[in-house]
Amino acid sequence: MVPIVIPSKVLLYRTYIVFTPEKDLFEKCSSADDHSLKLTNERLNVFQTLLKYETVSIDIRNQNYEAIKQCRTFIKQRYSNILQNKWIEVHDIATYSILYTIKGSEPDLKPYLLSAHYDVVPATNGSWKHEPFGAVVDGEYIYARGTLDDKTTVFAVMEALQIHMDGSTGIADYLSKVKFGNGDFEYILDEGSVMLEDGFPTVQYPVAIIAIGEKGYLTVEYRVEIMGGHSSMPSAPTSIGILSNAMVKLEANLHPSQFGRGPELDLLQSIAPYTAFPVRLVLSNLWIFGSLMEKFLSMKPATDALQRSTTAVTMISGGVKDNVLPPSAQSTVNHRIHSGDTCETILVQNKHIIHDDRVKDRTKFCVEPSPISPYGNHIWPYMILKHTIRQTFNGTIAVVPGLTLGGTDSKSYTNLSKHLYRFSPTYLKLSDFSRFHGINERITISNVERSMNFFYHLMVNSNVGTLTKSVAKHEL
């Protein structure tokens, strides 16, 4: 084998010349502590009222319909004044959703869509510091179910719209039948990835991830059925034992890494200029150090999920009585599918891992990974989002492409625009992620203010036709 010698000049050139921090296109709006839109007492009361509605949704047939209707009525009443503007219309979609349309002065141009939801997952008082629907202000935090997912976005978009102008599947069906502009959207922005303060080693600045796609979602039921009997004469293994062994295999054998087959490569290279040496050298030269980075990402679940499809055994049951051998046992496994995989490849791989014909599978739910939306400095909608983030958040910000690991309503909008992005304008730490759908969900007051200001500037910036250096800022 002939050794290949790579001059150090090549590595250093890529490290310090090819991958360098970007310059801002929009002038910073304000410091992080002095935003134009403040969470005044009046706005805080509105936000707290929104949070207090117990708009719980478990599935499409199990929701707190009355609370959802009341919440929708409150939103329409709170923002009824914007309907005095002749360019704005409100549409009731089915019984529980709202669509506001703002007509522009040039109807031939494509519109854009900002999406958010006000239904929430269940919450029990349990170990919460404050009652989950109490919307209690405790120091710099507001505690309530929905603060992170996703009532803050609902509130921020509507407050921003009010200043600027002085239900997912149902919405998607409606938009598919009604022509807006030329019948297509320039871009769609939904909830999704956030601004991470401590997500990447040696990165000296916050990292904002614009999700250009989302993982697929696959739920599979596994079942074992064998002869039962009396517990005094047990046969081994039982249905529970067989199924448990299968679940252990699934947890122990990860699905193959798809490193380089999704946006994770561009994510890491975009972060490179904001890291310290030698990490910067590695990230700028993944064509050499890709296998090393693949191993590094696999060391933590949060980073490993960026490069592979994940497996989680979420439910298991079996048996009918303490002295009866279980005739059957069943479990539920949830997969989040990397863009390099499909539902079918995951099912085939699972069957190979389990390698036991007594274990039968049944697909309960499957959504394939979303298409990857166009991104880069030549894509106008992506650049508008990217530089609005940099404009709104104080200091140096690394804005990078990536995948959102959870599911969003945007999966219903893939036929409406090829520019479909997911971003929630909030600062979070890795330790905050357990609060999504967990106990003590909360948000800082400063994050609520950031969200309002982000959406205000996004609305203003989306009217910019051509992006040039130092576009004037838009203060209130």
UniProtKB/TrEMBL annotation:
Highest classification ranks of the organism: Eukaryota, Metazoa, Spiralia, Gnathifera, Rotifera
InterPro entries xref list: Bact_exopeptidase_dim_dom, Pept_M20A, Peptidase_M20, Peptidase_M20_dimer
SUPFAM superfamilies (UniProt xref): Bacterial exopeptidase dimerisation domain, Zn-dependent exopeptidases
Protein name as annotated: Peptidase M20 dimerisation domain-containing protein
Native source organism of the sequence: Didymodactylos carnosus
Pfam families xref list: M20_dimer (PF07687), Peptidase_M20 (PF01546)
Keywords per UniProt: Hydrolase, Metal-binding, Protease, Zinc
Pathway this chain belongs to: Lipid metabolism; fatty acid metabolism
GO BP annotations listed: amide biosynthetic process; amide catabolic process; amino acid metabolic process; proteolysis
PANTHER family on file: N-FATTY-ACYL-AMINO ACID SYNTHASE/HYDROLASE PM20D1, N-FATTY-ACYL-AMINO ACID SYNTHASE_HYDROLASE PM20D1
Function: Secreted enzyme that regulates the endogenous N-fatty acyl amino acid (NAAs) tissue and circulating levels by functioning as a bidirectional NAA synthase/hydrolase. It condenses free fatty acids and free amino acids to generate NAAs and bidirectionally catalyzes the reverse hydrolysis reaction. Some of these NAAs stimulate oxidative metabolism via mitochondrial uncoupling, increasing energy expenditure in a UPC1-independent manner. Thereby, this secreted protein may indirectly regulate whole body energy expenditure.
Stretches assigned to the Peptidase M20 dimerisation domain: 212-354
Family membership noted in the UniProt record: Belongs to the peptidase M20A family.
Reactions mediated catalytically: N-(5Z,8Z,11Z,14Z)-eicosatetraenoyl-glycine + H2O = (5Z,8Z,11Z,14Z)-eicosatetraenoate + glycine; L-phenylalanine + (9Z)-octadecenoate = N-(9Z-octadecenoyl)-L-phenylalanine + H2O; N-hexadecanoyl-L-phenylalanine + H2O = hexadecanoate + L-phenylalanine; an N-acyl-L-amino acid + H2O = an L-alpha-amino acid + a carboxylate
Single GO MF annotation: aminoacylase activity
Keyword Transmembrane helix: no
